[in-house]
Amino acid sequence: MPARSAPGRQATFGMxxxxxxxxxxxxxxxxxxxxxxxxxxxxxxxxxxxxxAADLGMSLPAVFAGTSVLYVSMxxxxxxxxxxxxxxxxxxxxxxxxxxTAPGFLLLSxxxxxxxxxxxxxxxxxxxxxxxxxxxxxxxxxIAGRQAKNAIGALxxxxxxxSSIFWPTTSFLSGHLGWRGTCLVYAAMLLLVSLxxxxxxxxxxxxVADDAGEPVKPRPSPAIPxxxxxxxxxxxxxxxxxxxxxxxxxIELLRAxxxxxxxxxxxxSMLGVIQVSARGLDLLGGGRxxxxxxxxxxxxxxxxxxxxxxxxxxxxxxxAVFILLYGAGSGAMAVARATIPLVFYDQTEFAxxxxxxxxxxxxxxxxxxxxxxxxLTQFGSRGALGLxxxxxxxxxxxxxxxxxxxxxxxAAVT
Length: 414
Description:
By secondary structure, the protein is mainly alpha-helical. About 85% of the residues lie in helices and about 0% in strands. It folds into 2 domains: about 190 residues, MFS general substrate transporter like domains (Growth Hormone, Chain: A, Up-down Bundle); about 180 residues, Growth Hormone, Chain: A (Up-down Bundle), CATH 1.20.1250. It starts with 5 loop residues before the first helix and ends with a helix. This is MFS transporter. One of its GO terms (molecular function) is transmembrane transporter activity.
């Protein structure tokens, strides 16, 4: 029998994904809506940052530091939630987290000075550790196990549009209600939309029982060496530092390369579309490669992009190629960061691993923008690009090592 063509394999994958377990499709719909709301609402400062600064008597950088506080709080709380995810399941933990998020927005709406402002972001960070990304990936893993990679890719394809949907939404609401009124609307949205979806639509965690009705304990997976977990953490954390940092300073980086403000904004606006497109391509091929393979291919594009921009002296063509390479690489790497642990862990161990990884990942996300801004200010674009180039190369090398440590059964498949 002749071998199937690549388009045939992709079509087969698409049909298989669409016809997959109805519970998986249902949870994907729930998570698509709730994650869009979760990530979209906390992007509030990007639109009303200047209004916040004026009303609270704070500098604009201090206002945006609220997001850093959010990530630090998420990272510090995530490991403490690992037992809860394992014992009660993601659905229950995410319901509680959603309930906690609403008071965070209420507190933010009542803020009159910096202390209450940052306290609100701490509450939102604590809630986010239960509801944002990590909890969603754990819920998908509860339904699909190691096959959750395709579902995670599909979810990230949707959530990548959160800013495109909620930035204009925030602008519209704040124009009519002010930023305080917008916070109240978002608190209500979480309680009236996200919470009911988790409570009444998201499927409960399925517990397999034997003939006597007793829960069946899953067979223990082969022990994964601690050094392997350390490599997984290092690869994910280094890439998160690069992606979150470059994404935050991209406009200023391009301006430092000599582009006019309008040009920098035009090139920067292309990034989101390219990143989402790259996630879509990874989804189409998701049945044929795992997170490590995705990471190796995508991760290689990042140091090439950095090096090109460093050597180009700000040429327009080079900036365009940089945006293309960096956008495609960072978009696919976002999927890899979420799915690399699936190569080594399943079910309960995956929940524990993701909760532990969330601490360094969120800390890297919090410190990278101010650190790269400092390097950009002190040493120009070469300082920021030089550090991200080193971290990107290190990520690729670590992924090569992880590829050699794949469990034998998975290595045979890939």
